[in-house]
Amino acid sequence: MKADADGHRDLVLTALLRQLSSAADSLVSLSEDDALSARLVSHGAVAAAMQVMPKSGRKRPGLALSLVRLVANLTEVESGVVALLQVGDENLQGMYVRKLVHLFCRSSAQDIFDSVALILMNTSKVEAGRMILMEPKKGLLKKIVQQSDSVNQLRKKGVFGIICNCCFGADTKIHNLLSLPIWPILLLPVAGSKIYGEDDRAKMPPGLANALSNEREPVENSEIRQKALQAIYKIILQDEGQTAFFSINGPQILQAGYEEEENPKVMDAYELIGSLVTPELFRNLASRISSMVVTIEDTLTYEDYHVGSVIHKTEAVTFVLTKGKVVGQSGLIVHFATESKPAQCLASDGQLSILAIKEENKICDSLIWRDPEGIRCLNLSTILRKEL
After folding, report:
1. CB neighbour list of residue 222: distance below 8 Å, 6 or more residues apart
2. CB 183 within 8 A of CB 248
3. Coiled-coil regions in this chain (predicted)?
């Protein structure tokens, strides 16, 4: 009896697919059931919808919207994602995904393709989907992240879900992720309302620095804030991601956001990152390079005290990590000053704990340390002052 019922159901589904244009709404309702969704996939529903959807956007927007919702439901099941990705066909694999990204990202006042975000988010849950989205030559993820500032909450939430899912590939795709303007996108929703001064902004990417220098609207959607933090966590699990995060004052930015956060789930996401950003972590980084003598070619002469000036290549100064102090040649203690506190010597009294030295291109060019204001990072190539 069950076989007869299944056979009858298959006949009905096949008939509906043949009348796709008129039966789209019915198929959307049916596809909300995972079992029926899988059967629709087996009858070619994904391919049928993808053939009609792009062509109907302008002439029949209602049909296009229904087909987007249908494919979103179909890709909730694994077989639907496989069908969309066209796995196994080297010539066609990824073609539907590229079409969807084009529909999602094209400039239009219409919002019928906002729900494509759900399809792409489902696609990014599997490794094959992430590989297609993160392929550098195609630039699909780069196009998607540009939609992160959308005022449409469905679109915006989908973008952050896609980014978060793609960060599951951070262990092998960290270079691809960091090549995108990822920090402004991920940090702004969780940065709180603090306005940063010029000295703090000097370490940040321009997009992030500009945004954090002005008042800004909070991101009210807690799911977006949570996804942003989850993505950051996955990125900083990688050494290269940690280094990039610290170099832009990431911990300081998140600390300010955490102090304003009230949602328990989002607070948990902040605290998960905090479990990584600890003195022990920094000391582990430092232990790998603490015995290294590091040459900084760009230095100031003793009498050159121009705050914020470009440092000239006049001599080489060597720095080593010694008992929590930064010590220069001949045992000189290096003093640091900032534009906001030009008289403050940040590492001269031995009370501050230097936690790590950032290594880049075999030259350590940054220090990371903890002071009463939190964890800070200083670029040694822009040292502003050196005293005997």
Report:
1. 263, 265, 266
2. yes
3. none
- Residue 309 corresponds to which tokens in the numbers above? 């000036």
Nearest Cα residue to 85 out of 34, 142, 123: 123
Enter the tokens of residue 147: 């939609």
Measured in whole angstroms, the distance separating CA 26 from the mean position of its chain's CA atoms is 37
CA atoms of 61 and 122, how far apart (whole Å): 23
Sheet containing 317-322: order of strands: 294-296, 317-322, 325-327
**Close Cβ partners of 103 (under 8 Å, ≥ 6 residues apart):** 53, 54, 57, 113, 116
Give the type of residue at 328: G
How many Å apart are CA 72 and CA 32, to the nearest integer? 10
pLDDT digits (tens, 9 = 90+) for 84-125: 998 877 778 889 999 999 999 885 545 788 999 999 999 999
Q: How far is residue 344's CA from residue 279's CA, in Å, rounded to a whole number?
A: 23
Are 117 and 157 spatial neighbours (Cβ–Cβ below 8 Å)? yes
Q: What is the DSSP letter of 349?
A: S
Following DSSP, what letter does each residue of 334-380 receive, concatenated? P----SSSTT--TTSSS-SEEEEEEEETTEEEEEEEEETTEEEEEEG
The 10s digit of each residue's pLDDT in 196-237 is: 888 888 888 888 888 888 888 889 999 999 999 999 999 998
- Give the whole-angstrom CA distance, residue 158 versus residue 122: 10
DSSP-based three-state secondary structure for 333: strand
DSSP 236-280: HTSHHHHHHHHHTTHHHHHHHHHHH---HHHHHHHHHHHHHSSHH
